[in-house]
Amino acid sequence: MKFTLLGSGTSTGVPLPGCACKVCTSKHPRNHRDRTSACLTLNDGRVILIDAGPDLRYQALKHNVGRVDSVLFTHAHADHILGVDDLRSFNFASRNRISCYGSADTMSAITSSFSYIFNPRPGYEGGMVAQLDPHVISNDESCVIEGTSFKLFPLVHGSMTVTGFRVGEIGYATDFNMITERAEQVLAGVKHLFIDGLRYEPHKTHVTIPQAIEIAQRLKAHRTYIIHTTHTIDYDEVNASLPPGIELGYDGLTIQCP
Ligand SMILES: [Zn+2]
Ligand SMILES: [Zn+2]
Ligand SMILES: [Zn+2]
Fold first, then answer.
1. What domains does the chain contain, in order, with CATH numbers?
2. For residue 258, how far is its CA from the centre of ligand 3 (angstroms)?
3. For residue 117, pLDDT beyond 90
4. Distance (Å, whole) CA 203 – CA 183
């Protein structure tokens, strides 16, 4: 199994068009961060995508993602779902339908945002729309996707609930301002933890980098990668200041897991 971080940036991506700040004008590749998403490649080549954000097409080309068999959506914010239309490229390539998993709230928001895909009008004459099968999952249980078990947990993201998961030795907790008891239980002692850590200034719906560090240390994660970061985070500067075992995630970061 191989887990690849396809994007490590916040909802705007980094750099921001028109911004003249130090990070947005930096040539450092790790100061270029696509919208946060990831993929799990199974040993037989099947791919489970984690969110389908607006950068999906470019991320797939850049990181050689040639197929998508299933998608697990964490929540329905635009930076996590607006690549849904581009999933049809993978339908063309594989000639198979793609299973989409998310909580009831997430799937209802996605199916209404993309009603032309999920409830096409009779007589539609355009090209093929994405061929997607929605599946509702519960944040308080495990679910099996492509034969692989995901232990799910809820995260508090303002008024929204986000789906986090642990698959084997990988834990993934993006977009939250408050962790839940179930998340703490599922993630305790995890080997590789991907965790939201927006920036240093407080935010209503995201944890800060110091809060992410505190949570990672409490969970006793062996290695932690901070994701969903803004343009106030200079990769080299911030990465060098983090405690041992904790680093900034970056686009393309790949972990091989047994
Ligand atoms: Zn987000
Ligand atoms: Zn900037
Ligand atoms: Zn969000």
1. 2-250 (3.60.15.10)
2. 30
3. yes
4. 20
